[in-house]
Every structure is written in C-alpha cells, then in structure tokens.
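Researcher: Next entry in the queue.
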Amino acid sequence: MSMRMDLSQNMRAEMRMKMAPRMIQSMEILQMPLMALQDKIDQELTDNPLLLNLDEAEPGEAEPVVSEPSNSPEANGDDSPDFEPVPESAAIDAPDAALPDSAGSESSTTDDYEDDFYDLDDRFRETSSLSRSALDELSERRYEALMNAADRPPTLQDHLEEQLALLDLSEADQKMARFVINNLDERGYLSVSLHEIAREAGHAVSPLEVEQVLKIVQTLDPPGVAARDLRECLLLQVTDEHPMASALRILIERHLEDIQHNRLPLIEKRTGLSIAEIKEAIDQIRRLDPRPGARFAATPNSFVIPDFTLEPLEGGGYKVHLVDDSLPPLGVSRAYARLARSKQIEGKDREYLQRKLQSARWLIEAIEQRHTTLTRVAQEIVDHQRKFIDFGDEFLEPLKMQQIADIIGVHVTTISRAVDDKWIATPRGIYPLKRFFTGGTTTDDGGELAWDIVKQKLTEMIAKEDKSKPLSDEEIVNAFKAEGITIARRTVTKYREALHIPSSRQRKQYES
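Model: Structure for this entry, 512 residues:
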C-alpha cells in the first residue's frame, strides 16, 4: 500500500514538473497587457524560426490550412504550404516528439543548436527569412520610435550643474558642490551628512568648509533646494521681500507642528500674533514648495490604451470585446514541424527543432487561452457592475475576485492576474478592471454597500459640516447609523486618514 502511494505521489510530482513551464507561460501571457504581449510576440518571432506571422506569408500561403491526418496522402505531398495553423489543443505528436525534461526552457546549449540548425538542408532555410523580415520590421519600428521620441527632460542635477558652471568657484569647491548636487533626493533634499561630503573631498576639508559650499548650492534655483529638512527648506524660500517675513520665520522655526495640528490659540498665546495674522502667515507658508525637486522628477506616461471595449445590447447590458486585433495571426512552419518528426536528423538538431516546435505551439495556445479567459472575466465583471456603468460611482456594488473565480471555475489567482494592469473603456470613462472590485458592508435593511460608497459619503459629510464645529469620528459613526449604515469608529478613522482628511481638531476654523 505504501509503495502504491509513493508511486502515485511520484507520478503526480512528475506531471507537475512537466506542466510547470507550460502553466507558467500561460500565466505570464494572461497577465501581460496588450503592448507587452506585442513585444513578447515580436521577440518570439525573432528567436523561434518555427513560429510564423501568417500575415507575412508568401502569396498563396497566407490562408490558414487545416492539417490533414498523418495517414492522408495529402499530408505528405510536396504541394503543401510551409506553414500549418495550430489548433487550440495542439500538442507535439508522440512518440517522435518526446522531449527531455528540460523541454520548454532554453538550455545552455541553445546556441550550439542554433549553429547546427542553420547547417541543415537549404530547402528548409527559406522559411527562416520570415523571421528575419520580422526582425527587420521590428528594428525599423524601434528606430522610428527612437527618432520620434521626445528629448529627455532635464533632471534636477542637470538644472543645478548648468547654474554651477556659471559660478566662479575653485576646483575643490566645484567638486564638493557637484557631490552635494548628486546626493539630492527626489524632493531636492540633501541625503548625506556634511561629514560624508568632507570625507569624499579629502581629509584636509572640514565640515565647516563643506557648509560654506552647501550655502552656495542653496542659493540656486529652485528655491529651497539642498535643504536638510522641511524647516530649512521653507526658511530658504522666505526672503526679506516676503510679506510678513518675520512672522513666517517665527512660525516655521518654532510652530510647524502646532500649525499641523491647528493649534492657533496656542500660537497666538506664544507669539503675540493675532489669529488673523497667524492665518495669513499660514496661508503664505502654504504657498511655499516643500518638495522643490519634485518638479524635475520623471512622471509616468498617463496615456492608457484600453484592453476592453463595451458594445451596448438592445435589451440592456453590454457585450465585452477584447482589444487584441493588433496581434498578428501566428502559425507554425509546416516544413520544420515535419522535419522535427522525421528521421532525417537526429541528436541535438532534432531536440532543438522539437523544443522550438513545442515553444511555438505553447505560445499560440497561451494567447488563445488568454483571449478566452480575459473576455469571460471582463464580461462577468461588467454584468455584475452594470448599474455602476449606467448610473455612476454611487451604484458600485461590493465584489470580490473570489466571486468571479467561482463563477468561471478558476483559481482566484487567475482572476488577479487577468485584471492586473488591464483597462476597460466604458460610457463613463476608462477604468482599471481592479476598480470594479471592492469590499462592503450590510445596511440595516439587508442591502449591500461598497466601501467606496462609504468613503464617498464620508467625504460628503465632512464637506457639509460646520467648520467652526467639525464632526468628530464618533459623530460621523452616528450620522452613518442614522442612514441605516453600521460602521465602526476605527473604520471611519482609517478611511478618513486614507482620504487625507485631517482630524476634527485640525479641520476646525477659528474666527478672526
């Protein structure tokens, strides 16, 4: 009995090992957004001579041809085209296609296989020209994109070094100044100590000398750059020409924490300034830039290409369409596939062809499976959140990935991968698919309310409150309860902080 169990476990382990490369590739393909998948296909067309772009086939060979059974006379005829379409469940024929355990992944001797492969008979080399043409097209597209790309915007370091070059500094001071500039973080703050700069400059240099150079760098544009903390950053931006410069310096040097907690009466008591003067000074402080280097930080491209579009149906609802028309139709070179199964070559040449044949078929199956899975997942999401799409944010319903996984019959991680970095175009705008998933709470009448709606209601309550008597978190809990929504005070606090809404004390406005 024990031997039988061990044998069964070994068989299952062996099956998992064989399936792992295929499953891993399927998951990777599923998770890829469209642009990444296009790049993946371009690279595979370049690397795998058995994979063909059917749009690039010679005249008369571009129509998909269903493979005939192996015992059919037509299957072995010389008139068959040099590519074969791959059915959804295509697999390498046994026993000729049996591969070593490393099949599905590139071995360390792939380069050797490449060298041996291109020494094969000339009649099979012509199909590789399609891969070369795909490479040429890819290179042309990348060159065109490079030529049309915008110049790299100047960094904070570029901006400061241009100004530094105009100053009359000694070589040693220039070196220290550049070290300061190159150690500014994305906010524009100095991220190393003066002692570190002194050590970098040489043992003869003291931190006091470094500070003299630092003060020079701090005079450069943007104002506040090279500060060591927020207080110094703000003070560097306050000049004598500022209105209320004296009051600003006092508040920045001694009362930043009091300003943060809205302790205006305490500031009034300790400074002798009136509430009106304090409020005016705070307004001036808010106009200063606490992150002067941030304007030079690279910003991500906000342009989004939706992965899905919606087609309104006559009876109501929507049909989901996956946007993947730009992906080329793929097939496998029939000549090479036939060669991989033949006895004309042996050893490494045959293993190489079989490996590439398997890789091509797995890729095609993974892309087809991606199309099916993404469409099903998106359709279920849209069906569940139809009211949100029709009427707006307040109709977003609680939805968890496990619910969609249960409906489709897949693991929840598959849903997570399917919706990752995927966007859908709706009549209300373009949304990430993850936007449609949210938890929720149950109302007193038994209905469900998404947490996003709770946050929206919380924002509305605070926006309408009396600013001289702002609502405490406990009062917000009672206001929700009056609407039939039971919510814990700690949840209100968590959501308020997540929305960057200050506490009631910080929101209180004092009369001048």
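Model: Residues 59-135, 141-150 have pLDDT under 50 and may be disordered.
Researcher: Noted, moving on.
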